[in-house]
Design a protein that fits this description.
It contains 13 helices and no strands. The chain is mainly α and about 300 residues long.
């Protein structure tokens, strides 16, 4: 019986199917806002689903002539698995389902890196030089923002009174005030937004893909169902990363009507990400590294000092 519950969580709700559907709608929301900013009409509501199923059911899978076909095909599946597992650990506490364990927030941190590493592995396995350049940029970007992201999590742990599980962190905010309601919380939110922007490889941090320079870079050799899996992983990440930020800093969700407030908070974070990517040019990889390793880390360190003083 317990195994059936776990399978339901993983595959249906709040697992793969739920995250994929919500992520697809958020992708439409992102594209619609982008179109409005550019004075265009934008895609229909179901366009993300059309894109996914066209790749999955219609388009042909073309394997690169050189490289490792097995690793090339395995990488997108690993990305979907990592995103789904991270989403489970985030959404179960967010929906007030008592589960998890002490230290699950550290597991979430590592699981959220799996999609990026999967893209790197797939690009290197393709044997394409442009894919290798994209993989190199992705590795440099990960090195740049992951330290900032880890420092944000450490600051949230401090702010919650040394709580290492997401359930307790959300409960600490619900029994008091949301962490974003303090100076240190605002600083952590700013740094968190830019970390999510980089994790999603959105402008100004889309150097690994860089369509105009690298012809999609790390995804250059992907087509058909494997590329559909990459899109699926991206849909899921577009949902769970804003949800994670809401859980860490914005009070999560209280029972009842507050589900509407939770949806609005996630939509607000996605809207902010969309506006950032539509009002900034792509930066160079060294500029991104300097931005995170110097300025964002400094911002989070200042937030940690403020937390020590109770601010």
């Amino acid at each position: 019986m317990q195994m059936a519950v776990y399978l339901l969580w993983f595959f249906i709700f709040p697992g793969l199917l739920f995250m994929a559907v919500v992520g697809a709608f958020l992708s439409w929301f992102d594209r619609k806002i982008t179109a409005r900013v550019q004075f265009r009409k934008g895609p229909p509501l179901l366009q993300p689903f059309y894109d996914f199923f066209k790749l999955l059911l219609v388009k042909e899978t073309i394997l690169p002539k050189s490289g490792s076909g097995f690793v090339f095909l395995l990488a997108p599946l690993l990305a979907v698995f990592g995103a789904t597992m991270a989403g489970l650990f985030i959404l179960l506490p967010l929906f007030n389902i008592e589960t998890g364990f002490r230290g699950d927030i550290i597991v979430i941190f590592y699981l959220l890196t799996l999609p990026s590493f999967s893209y790197i592995i797939g690009a290197l396995a393709s044997g394409n030089p442009l894919g290798a350049v994209g993989a190199s940029r992705e590795m440099k970007l990960i090195i740049s923002y992951e330290l900032t992201f880890l420092l944000i999590i450490a600051a949230v742990i401090m702010k919650s009174g040394q709580k290492f599980d997401l359930n307790s962190i959300i409960a600490a905010q619900q029994s008091g005030t949301p962490f974003i309601g303090s100076i240190s919380g605002v600083l952590l939110f700013i740094a968190g937004i830019f970390c999510i922007q980089a994790k999603l490889a959105l402008v100004p941090f889309d150097m690994p893909e860089a369509e105009a320079e690298l012809a999609s870079g790390i995804y250059i050799e992907y087509s058909g169902p494997p590329y559909a899996m990459i899109k699926l992983a991206k849909y899921i990440m577009l949902f769970i990363l804003p949800a994670f930020l809401v859980a860490l800093l914005m009070n999560g969700m209280n029972p009842g009507i507050n589900i509407v407030w939770l949806i609005l908070k996630i939509l607000g974070v996605v809207l902010l990400l969309t506006l950032i990517r539509n009002t900034n040019p792509r930066v160079k990889i060294k500029q991104a590294a300097r931005f995170f390793l110097v300025w964002m880390n400094l911002l989070v360190v200042v937030a940690i000092v403020l937390i020590v003083f109770g601010l």
